[in-house]
Design brief:
Layout: H1 5-10, E1 20-22, H2 25-36, E2 40-42, E3 54-58, E4 64-68, E5 71-72, E6 80-82, H3 100-111, H4 124-139, E7 147-151, H5 155-158, E8 167-172, H6 175-181, E9 190-194, E10 207-213, H7 223-235, E11 236-245, H8 256-264, H9 274-282, E12 290-291, H10 293-302, H11 306-312, E13 332-333, H12 338-345, E14 349-355, E15 367-372
Parallel strand pairs: 7-8, 7-10, 8-9, 10-11
Antiparallel strand pairs: 1-3, 2-6, 3-4, 4-5, 11-15, 12-13, 14-15
Length: 378
């Protein structure tokens, strides 16, 4: 799929931080010939073994980025460095393992997205609010149409109605999420790219609006949190808008027994909220986070006879089977409080609004709106 002009104008090499340009046929042929000769390596040090259908080249000639199935692969460790002869190694990129532990999980999740319910997916109420907030943000765009950056490829958000003329770039580190969930294939003014949110392949001040949904969940504190905050400020223009739905644990930890009492007494209406209430309850501080396997362990400890409980509540016997996906999972999630997010972003952003949804446990999934603080000298 050809990359639309507005997208290329937004992009830069995340390693050298210089603009990117689409490779012409002659340059692409030369690159593929070099790959065939074994003279190209990824930034991670691994050999490039497959030819590329297209590529974006850093204008300083230091690297290229493959385009496969219409999706640019703009992770720093996936950059292609040419003229390297085996067995000469490239110095590995220290960021190369940043998201490796999550890649298989996101691929599995994307294949089973139809089984996932809100709040992991946004509610219609959340999408309606995001659409309205993006409409408001786009009014101040200085060009004919807004340039929007979506962190992730959440299909409910990607496929919502965006303001007329919007150029939309969705950025996700998972090949599976893009392959299985990106809903806008063939759209003239929207594209997805593979990239790292803490080293975005986006030029300074290129975006009028930035949208995220649960974006802190898989990041490590403090390094990745601080890097993401800095990158969001860097890519937003001074008059831009940041809109995020948070997965925010309560300021005071909720007792596990209270969560399961609500379930047994029928006060829990949406069973998909249960694992995230548990995760928030077992969450340590941000450096410790919450172990996903603890969700399953707490469920089995507090509801040893799940069938009897579900039968008494009139729920089908398989209503909670989806919790099985958390069994023995050592991966951890970060669920910052709203106060922690405010403290994190306070240096670079000003909070303009905080919307709390009306659905069950809605105070744990607020949508917040920030605008950038002016840069020194601007």
């Amino acid at each position: 799929m050809p990359l639309f002009e507005g997208l290329v104008e937004m992009l830069q090499c995340p390693h050298a931080r210089v603009p990117l340009a689409v490779m012409g046929d002659r340059e692409l042929g030369e690159l593929n010939s070099e790959i065939a000769r074994g003279g190209a390596r990824h930034g991670s040090g691994d050999a490039v073994t497959l030819p590329v259908e297209g590529a974006l080249a850093a204008i300083d000639g230091t690297a290229a980025y493959a385009i496969r199935d219409g999706v640019p692969d703009l992770l720093p460790e996936r950059r292609i460095v040419r003229g390297v002869r085996p067995p000469q190694p490239i110095r590995p990129d220290p960021r190369s393992d940043a998201f490796e532990v999550w890649d298989a999980r996101w691929d599995h999740l994307s294949q089973n997205w139809h089984l996932i319910g809100p709040p992991l997916r946004p509610f219609p109420e959340d999408v309606d609010l995001l659409r309205r907030l993006v409409d408001e943000a786009a009014v101040g765009a200085p060009r004919g149409g807004a340039r929007a950056l979506l962190l992730g490829v959440t299909p409910e958000i990607a496929a919502m109605r965006w303001p007329a003329g919007t150029a939309l770039l969705a950025l996700d580190s998972s090949k599976g999420m893009i392959r299985n969930l990106w809903p806008r294939h063939g759209a003239r003014d929207a594209a997805a790219a593979r990239g790292d949110w803490t080293a975005m392949p986006v030029r300074d001040g290129a975006c009028d609006v930035l949208v995220g949904d649960g974006i802190f969940t898989t990041l490590q504190y403090p390094d990745h949190f601080l890097a993401l905050a800095g990158e969001m400020r860097r890519v937003l223009r001074d008059t831009g808008t940041l809109v995020m739905r948070l997965f925010a644990r309560p300021e005071e930890r909720e007792p596990l027994e209270a969560i399961f009492s609500d379930l047994r007494d029928g006060r829990t209406v949406n069973e998909h909220i249960l694992p995230w209430r548990i995760a928030m309850a077992v969450h340590g501080d941000l450096s410790e986070r919450a172990r996903l396997g603890d969700i399953w362990d707490a469920w089995r400890e507090h509801v040893p006879d799940a069938g009897a409980v579900l039968d008494r509540l009139g729920r089908p016997p398989d209503a909670m089977d989806f919790l099985e996906v958390y069994r023995d999972v050592d991966a951890r999630v970060s669920l910052p409080t709203l106060g922690e997010v405010r403290d994190l972003l306070g240096r670079d952003f000003v909070e303009r609004a905080c919307h709390v949804p009306r659905y069950e446990a809605g105070d744990q999934y607020p949508t917040v709106v920030f605008t950038p603080r002016r840069r020194a000298g601007s």
